[in-house]
């Protein structure tokens, strides 16, 4: 239990240090426009990487194609035709559930 508490305290301290380092380093100045543009692209790239690794990751470093891939493909199709996000989620759930049932 003591190890768990120590890890939590270390994570809190590290998070506070990382969050405080930005304003301290910048000193109230604005980020350059190019840096702001790159930072704004990080969230979608990380989300796409998370979706892909959770969808296609198998045991170890193995690539797996299963019913989750069908759901992601269906959601991508809905989003490609500019459909709403909620519809993409419903299509992904329905396709994945249908393929799993079969």
Keywords:
78% helix, flat, mainly alpha, single chain, 102 residues
Give me the secondary-structure category.
mainly alpha
Radius of gyration: 20 Å
Biggest sheet: strands, sense, closure? none
Low-confidence stretches: none
What percentage of the residues does DSSP assign to strands (E)? under 5%
Number of DSSP strands? 0
In whole angstroms, the N-to-C terminal distance is 45 Å
- Describe the global form: flat
Approximate helicity band: over 70%
- The string of secondary-structure elements, in order, is HHHH
| Continuous helix count | 4
Q: What is the overall pLDDT average?
A: 90
Please describe what this structure looks like:
The protein has 4 helices and no strands. With 102 residues, it is mainly alpha-helical. The longest helix is centred in the N-terminal third of the chain and has 25 residues, at 2-26.
SSE layout:
Blueprint: H1 2-26, H2 33-56, H3 67-80, H4 85-101
Helix pairs in contact: 3-4
Short description:
This protein is an all-alpha fold and 102 residues long.
């Amino acid at each position: 239990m003591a190890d768990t508490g120590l890890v939590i305290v270390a994570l809190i301290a590290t998070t506070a240090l990382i969050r405080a380092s930005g304003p301290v380093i910048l000193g109230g100045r604005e980020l350059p426009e190019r840096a702001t543009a790159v930072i704004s692209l990080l969230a979608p790239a990380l989300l796409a990487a998370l979706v892909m690794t959770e969808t296609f990751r198998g045991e170890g470093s193995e690539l797996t194609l299963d019913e989750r891939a069908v759901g992601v493909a269906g959601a991508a199709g809905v989003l490609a035709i500019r459909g709403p996000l909620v519809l993409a989620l419903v299509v992904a759930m329905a396709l994945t559930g249908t393929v799993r049932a079969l």
